[in-house]
Design a protein that fits this description.
Distance between the termini: 69 Å
Largest sheet: 3 strands, parallel
Number of helices: 8
Number of strands: 5
Shape: elongated
Bound molecules: iron/sulfur cluster
Order of helices and strands: HHHEHEHEHEEHH
Length: about 230
């Protein structure tokens, strides 16, 4: 501050009355300071973890201390998605659609064992084993369910991540750098990630060739039944 004060006194004429109220900082610091303290989460919850998230926003833990209490009903007004609960294959297309509708800069926090990796339902036919299979996650909060304190710790971790970003290199201000768009997966007999469509096509092609040539196709059904 001494160097800054010297600069103020020597080069810039500052009225005597406001001299003690002037701070010098970098653009990145002031920009990140305002963003980290005004994250607006999207108002949606998926399962039991959502109750802990709601509790975090209530008066006992009070997310308003972090400027994060404004849960928005529209993805277009939110910059933080808290995935709180079990991600079913039926729900993930909607989650991806909501993620795509959020403006940049946007962040995703995965809350609880279910969102992180399927949790107790990992082997379930209807559950996705981790929301990060489809949506990029910034912070993972472990637990089943994580307590409000754990969620707050995750949010503080996200704030620290935001502190490291720079207005110069942030992709959302750069020309010809579109935000990350995730194709909405299709739910048929199972979930189809459209980013892997070439892989799926190749695998299906190989299998049809084997059938056409009369080569035996590996049948896993007996093994599954034995297990
Ligand atoms: S992690 Fe535990 S508390 Fe959270 S949604 Fe899954 S089962 Fe419920």
């Amino acid at each position: 501050m001494t160097a800054a004060n010297d600069a103020l006194t020597s080069e810039i004429p500052v009225p005597e009355g406001v001299k003690d109220n002037i701070f010098i900082t970098s653009l990145d610091k002031i920009y990140n300071w305002s963003r980290r303290n005004s994250l607006w989460p999207m108002g949606f919850g998926l399962a039991c973890c959502a109750i802990e998230m709601i509790c975090t926003a209530a008066s006992r833990y009070d997310l308003a201390r972090f400027g994060m209490e404004v849960f928005r009903a529209s993805p277009r007004q939110a910059d933080l998605m808290i995935v709180s609960g079990t991600v079913t294959k039926k729900m993930i297309p909607i989650i991806v659609r909501l993620y795509n509708q959020m403006p940049e800069p946007r962040y995703v926090l995965s809350m609880g064992a279910c969102a992180n990796g399927g949790g107790p339902f990992k082997e379930g036919y209807n559950v996705l084993d981790g929301v990060d299979k489809l949506v990029p996650v910034d912070v993972y909060v472990p637990g089943c369910p994580p307590t409000p304190q754990a969620l707050i710790n995750g949010l503080i971790t996200l704030q620290e991540k935001i502190d490291q970003q720079s207005i110069v290199t942030a992709p959302w201000y750069r020309k010809n750098t579109p935000g990350e768009f995730v194709p909405v997966p299709v739910l048929g007999p199972d979930l189809v990630d459209l980013r892997q469509i070439d892989l799926i096509r190749d695998a299906v092609g190989e299998q049809s060739t084997e059938i056409a040539q009369g080569t035996e196709v590996e049948d896993l059904t007996p093994e599954v039944q034995d297990a």
